[in-house]
Design a protein that fits this description.
With 176 residues, the protein is α+β, with helices and mostly antiparallel strands. It has four helices and nine strands.
Length: 176
């Protein structure tokens, strides 16, 4: 087994711990967490680091991850905000669940059942300290401009961000 962490995945109809890379190689359905950090009508995007094992260099929402075995989704969301962006103390609001399946680069597949969270922040006082192993760069953008950029150049954005904007934007990013 590789050094990748074990995450929950459905195998033979039951949730079991599986190596993260194996989950994506086999396209197993698995839980995930996604967080949007908003400021009024703008949302924080991160560009995935060049060394990521899939979708490097693509723009995504503030953070996404897989809960560890037995980890509650909200705890996972808080943990990952701190790990990826150095952000702590935001009040996360559950924003529902969404399921999607997407073919990724490197022959990998995401088949995720995602718990969505959103938080409000002040971009003037929010202290971002991105981990360069995870995040190449960050920026703020309003929902309409993000939709326009995705329509013009969808390949610059992760499949999950495109799904979220198509299917759940009103729950995740306030209108400007």
């Amino acid at each position: 087994m590789s050094a990748a962490p074990l995450i929950p995945a459905w195998r033979d109809g039951r949730l079991t711990p599986v190596d993260k890379l194996e989950v994506h190689r086999l396209g197993l359905r698995h839980p995930a967490v996604s967080v949007f950090v908003n400021a009024g009508g703008r949302t924080l995007l991160q560009r995935r680091a060049a060394g990521k094992y899939h979708t490097p260099g693509l723009w995504a929402n503030a953070c996404c991850t897989h809960p560890a075995w037995g980890e509650a989704p909200a705890d996972c969301a808080r943990r990952r905000l701190a790990e990826e962006l150095g952000v702590q103390g935001l009040a996360l609001r559950p924003r529902g669940r969404i399921e999607y399946r997407a073919e990724l680069d490197a022959g990998l597949v995401e088949h995720e059942v995602v718990e969505l969270f959103a938080a409000e922040a002040d971009p003037e006082t929010l202290a971002l300290a991105p981990d360069p192993q995870e995040v190449w760069e960050t920026r703020w953008i309003d929902r309409d401009a993000l939709r326009a950029e995705i329509a013009a150049a969808p390949a610059r954005f992760t499949p999950w961000l495109r799904v979220y904007l198509r299917d759940a934007a009103d729950r995740l990013i306030p209108a400007a």
